Amino acid sequence: KKLKSLWCHANELSELPENVCLLTAVEEISCGSNQIERLPSSLDNLVSMRRLMVDENRIKVLPNLLAALLKFSLESLTFEGCPLEDPPLSVRVQGYEAVMSYLDHQYKSN
After folding, report:
1. How far is CA 68 from CA 9, 35, 36, 64, 90, in A?
2. What's the start-to-end Cα distance of the chain, in Å?
3. Is-cis flag, bond preceding 87, omega within 30?
4. From start to end of 1-95, where are the E strands?
5. What is the pLDDT of residues 21-41, one digit of tens each?
């Protein structure tokens, strides 16, 4: 069997290890209430992921590569309680679709 859900809430993690991105069949990652400052750079390998929950962490920037997951399966992204600087608040208050559109635009610009 392949791992479908990874829950690592409140474990005082300072990072989500890069090798998590080897779990290509994972559909859900929930890593809220940790100390995570950034998401792995190869997160776009998780082509089966439908839900990513990173609430209550120290993440300041959502990586543009999350937009790449839109092509595959990402349906939900939550980041409540994170001190985000990018995307800006003016985008975040418009909701998930606006955030993903912003990330997609940034991703295609790079």
Report:
1. 25, 25, 21, 8, 22
2. 37
3. yes
4. 5-7, 28-30, 51-53, 76-78
5. 999 999 999 999 999 999 998
